[in-house]
Structure formats: structure tokens, C-alpha cells
Design brief:
six-stranded antiparallel beta sheet; globular; Beta-Lactamase; about 210 residues; about 40% helix; 6 strands; 7 helices; alpha+beta
Length: about 210
């Protein structure tokens, strides 16, 4: 990913920079792989148990709990594309940390089950399959109107976020939003981890929503 789009410096460790990976790095990678395997196993089992009676609240809480082990967040949102990609339906959301801040008269309109025109949501590149890292929506020069960005149904009340495409069998089927009410929480390493998580849970979300 182009570092100019994320405003980040890659972590100087391991084969990517030509350096020898340390034992600590190997241990960390193994721990992360274990966490991801546990995440997929637990969520897949839960998804199977909900085939007849979907419980989206329990599902999203399970996802959030596992994701927090590797990516800190105040809120996690899962959303699915409908109507040939023209509508976005909120599958569920979970406030995992401190309550998202409400400034002035702003509220968070990202209600489970609610549907939004994709043109209203914005973030077209996300639904085209490009992940998004926002370190601080109020300071990022790419956002001309940070106030508008905060009012987006998916990102309302957040200062920083990871926006990750979910893939079904053949195409982008939705989005995973991992967000923080505080700025400068996420790094490129978090983005890469988020992409791995999204790859694991995308088919499960599609199966439950089918």
C-alpha cells in the first residue's frame, strides 16, 4: 500500500526491510496467528449455531471481543451490501470500549438493520475493495470537511478508523469498520491485521445474512 495514502512509516523489522527477523518477532507472529485461528474457529462455530435462528448481537459481540485482542477499538461495525451494491445494510455494531462521543447535537445513526444508499455513505473506494486507514479525520488533509466525515453513518463519532472490505464468494459483500473516538490509534500494522481478520469473517457474515 502506498505510504503516502496512510501517512505512516512501516515498522522497521523483519524480511520486509531486509533485516533478520528476531526471535521476539517470530514469537509475536506465532501469537497473532494463534489469535486469528482462535477468532476464526470461535466465530465459525457461532455462525454454524445461528443458521436457523441468527443472533446478530451475539455474533458481533463475539467478533469484537476477539478483534480487541489484536486491534483496540471503541466501536466495531459490520455492514453488508444489498441491491447490487447500491444499498448498505448495517448487520450489527458493538461499542467495545468507552462510549463513542456525541458532540453538540450529533448522534450515531448507524443502527443495526438500517439501510443506507451507498451514495449517501460515501467511501466508494472501500466498496471497490480498497481498505482505508484514517489516523485522525480532523487533521487528515485528504478530508476537506472533517465534520461531514464524522457524520457518516459508519464513522459518526470516530476520530480514527480502519475501514475494511468484506469479501463473499466472488466480490465485495460489505465492510468491517474498526474505530476509535481518539486520534492516532491505528498504524499500518493494524491495517494489515484488520485485512486478515476481514478475509476470515467475510464469508461467515455473508452466510449468516443469506
Amino acid at each position: 500500500m502506498d505510504a503516502s495514502l496512510t501517512g505512516l512509516t512501516r515498522i522497521p523489522a523483519g524480511p520486509e526491510t531486509g533485516g533478520a527477523p528476531s526471535a521476539a518477532c517470530d514469537h509475536g507472529t506465532a501469537a497473532i496467528d494463534f489469535d486469528l485461528a482462535a477468532l476464526h474457529s470461535s466465530i465459525a462455530a457461532l455462525a454454524r449455531s445461528m443458521r436457523d435462528e441468527p443472533d446478530t448481537r451475539r455474533f458481533i459481540e463475539c467478533v469484537s471481543s476477539h478483534v480487541r485482542r489484536v486491534i483496540p477499538h471503541d466501536r466495531l461495525v459490520l455492514a453488508c451490501l444489498e441491491d447490487a451494491g447500491h444499498t448498505l445494510a448495517v448487520f450489527g455494531q458493538h461499542a467495545a470500549g468507552a462510549p463513542a462521543r456525541h458532540e453538540g447535537n450529533h448522534t450515531i445513526p448507524c443502527d443495526p438493520g438500517r439501510r443506507y444508499p451507498c451514495a449517501e455513505i460515501g467511501h466508494a473506494s472501500l466498496f471497490a475493495g480498497l481498505p482505508e486507514l484514517m489516523r485522525d479525520c480532523q487533521a487528515d488533509p485528504r478530508i476537506a470537511d472533517a465534520e461531514s466525515a464524522r457524520q457518516c453513518a459508519l464513522m459518526a463519532g470516530l476520530r480514527a478508523w480502519l475501514a475494511l472490505p468484506l469479501y463473499g464468494a466472488e466480490h465485495v459483500s460489505g465492510a468491517l469498520i474498526i474505530g476509535s473516538a481518539a486520534p492516532d490509534v491505528y498504524t499500518e500494522a493494524h491495517l494489515e491485521m484488520g485485512q486478515r481478520i476481514a478475509e476470515l469473517i467475510g464469508p461467515l457474515v455473508e452466510a449468516i445474512g443469506a
